[in-house]
Specification:
By secondary structure, the chain is mainly β. It has a domain of about 230 residues: Neuraminidase. It contains four helices and 26 strands. The strands form seven sheets. Strands 1-26-25-24 form a four-stranded antiparallel β-sheet, with no helix packed on it. A four-stranded antiparallel β-sheet has the order 2-3-4-5, with no helix packed on it. A four-stranded antiparallel β-sheet has the order 6-7-8-9, with no helix packed on it. Strand 2 and strand 3 form a beta hairpin. It is globular and about 65 Å long. The N and C termini lie far apart (about 70 Å).
């Protein structure tokens, strides 16, 4: 039994040393206290259902994480992968590489009127990818502040590109640190192709994520993932230049958002709120400890599939679920083309499509 005592003593020493390191080592973040509003959970219109469980899954043959999905005028499907490639899926199902962003991570994307694929690359900034696959940087910073986490976009009828920089402090692999710190490092911006200049519209956003324009382009929405809400910036009318809250205290983390152009916004929720994260937010010391843990020990996404249809007043029209995340999970974007909803994912090796009626 001597060997067992020695093993226990060694294990105890390791635990003590690890605990001491967690307490004494410098933290990776400088967090502030925030008390999240109590979530009502998935009740009422948010009540769980199985509407996503029979959706069609298109497996990515080589790669993973098509965070946002875009379609060109020929009905070909595009998605940006974790390795920097943008793939294209032809109507016959053939998958090919359309472009490769060396050292990049393509996230939000949409086609402009000239047929260029406009891309928010987490590392490279706002890009334009020509039909031949050649990428050009449109903007890599604003006001002397480089983009650290260019995230999502929406293109207006006049060609202006509204887009988000999720964080000017933390890059894409460290998104958990930005959420934990809760200091509001995100921005909403607009790029004018006529001048080649990006202008800041909103600052201090709590992880600025999905971006969408209303049907009449009177306002633009931006998701604040770190505050479980959707904010609205007015572009026209008496409120032009002001902002307010469009949807608040959501039961999950809002990621991508898009407009179908007919009065419906599609909101992607990759995960319900994590109780560990909510409990930690009022305690900066605890958030410092969490930031030192290996990523696999930090609060993470809960495997479910959730998409919400909102009207232009911010009211929930319908919710689509896959409660056990099989086969649909980690939904980070929802884009409607015709009567079909295309779902992207930051982590999953798939694109999902679902027929939707009444939208």
């Amino acid at each position: 039994m001597v060997w067992l005592k020695r093993l226990l003593a060694l294990a105890l020493a390791v635990i003590v040393l690890f605990g001491a390191w967690l307490w004494l080592a410098p933290a990776k973040i400088d967090p502030v206290a925030w008390t999240p509003p109590k979530s009502a959970g998935f009740v009422g219109v948010f009540a769980p259902n199985d509407k996503l469980e029979k959706a069609e899954v298109i497996k990515i043959k080589d790669g993973t994480g098509p965070e946002t999905v875009a379609l060109d005028n020929d009905g070909r499907i595009y998605g940006g992968l974790q390795d920097g490639r943008i793939i294209r899926i032809l109507k016959d199902g053939t998958q090919e590489t359309f472009a490769t962003i060396q050292g990049g991570r393509p996230l939000g994307m949409a086609f402009d009127a000239a047929g260029n694929l406009i891309v928010c690359d987490a590392y490279k900034g706002l890009l334009s990818v020509a039909p031949d696959g050649k990428a050009t940087v449109l903007s890599a910073g604003e006001g002397g502040r480089p983009f650290r986490f260019t995230d999502d976009l929406a293109i207006a009828s006049d060609g202006k590109i509204y887009f988000s920089d999720a964080s000017d402090t933390y890059s894409q692999p460290d998104y958990r640190l930005d959420l934990l710190e809760a200091r509001g490092h995100g921005r909403l911006l607009v790029y004018d192709p006529a001048t080649g200049v990006a202008t800041k519209l909103l600052d201090g956003l709590y992880f600025a994520n999905g971006v969408a324009l209303s049907a009449d382009e009177s306002f633009v929405l931006v998701n604040e993932t770190g505050r479980y809400r959707v904010s609205r910036y007015w572009l026209k009318g008496d409120k032009a230049g002001t902002h307010d809250i469009f949807a608040d205290n959501l039961p999950g983390f809002p990621d991508g958002i898009s407009s179908n152009g007919h009065g419906t916004f599609w909101l992607a929720i990759p995960s319900p709120r994590n109780p560990v994260m909510d409990d930690a937010h009022p305690k900066p010391w605890l958030k410092k400890v969490i930031s030192k843990l290996p990523v696999w020990m930090q609060p993470s996404a809960i495997k479910e599939g959730i998409v919400v249809a909102l009207d232009e007043q911010g009211r929930v029209k319908e919710v689509f679920h896959d409660g056990d995340g099989n086969p649909v999970y980690m939904i980070t974007s929802a884009t409607q083309v015709g009567d079909t909803l295309y779902l992207g994912s930051l982590d999953a090796p798939q694109i999902v499509r679902l027929k939707v009626s009444g939208y």
